[in-house]
UniProtKB/TrEMBL annotation:
<dbReference type="GO" id="GO:0005975">
    <property type="term" value="P:carbohydrate metabolic process"/>
</dbReference>
<protein>
    <submittedName>
        <fullName>Beta-glucosidase 17</fullName>
    </submittedName>
</protein>
<dbReference type="GO" id="GO:0008422">
    <property type="term" value="F:beta-glucosidase activity"/>
</dbReference>
<dbReference type="InterPro" id="IPR017853">
    <property type="entry name" value="GH"/>
</dbReference>
<dbReference type="InterPro" id="IPR001360">
    <property type="entry name" value="Glyco_hydro_1"/>
</dbReference>
<dbReference type="Pfam" id="PF00232">
    <property type="entry name" value="Glyco_hydro_1"/>
</dbReference>
<comment type="similarity">
    <text>Belongs to the glycosyl hydrolase 1 family.</text>
</comment>
Length: 90
């Protein structure tokens, strides 16, 4: 599991079920959902679709999704505009 998870998550979830995992922690990549960092820059519908499919497949297999909303992947546009989390504006 984990190598190229984006393209192989269905097989990986089958393996999780096979070894009796009952939960799975993953991060939602801010950059995958909002490539330009903000809603005004547009939403990547394919990114949203991926996470919807992932969560639905986990639940279908009886595996509890444990979602991390931020895991150190600030979009470059926000780093450039605000100097990342050093800014009080972010």
């Amino acid at each position: 599991m984990a190598e190229d998870f984006y393209h192989h998550f269905k097989e990986d979830i089958a393996l999780m079920k096979e070894i009796d995992l009952d939960s799975f922690r993953f991060s939602i990549s801010w950059s995958r959902v909002l490539p330009k960092g903000k809603l005004s820059g547009g939403v990547n519908e394919q990114g949203v679709k991926f996470y919807n499919e992932l969560i639905n497949k986990l639940l279908y297999k009886g595996i509890q999704p444990c979602v991390t909303l931020f895991h150190w992947d600030t979009p470059q546009a926000l780093e450039d505009e605000y100097d990342g989390f050093l800014s009080i504006d972010i």
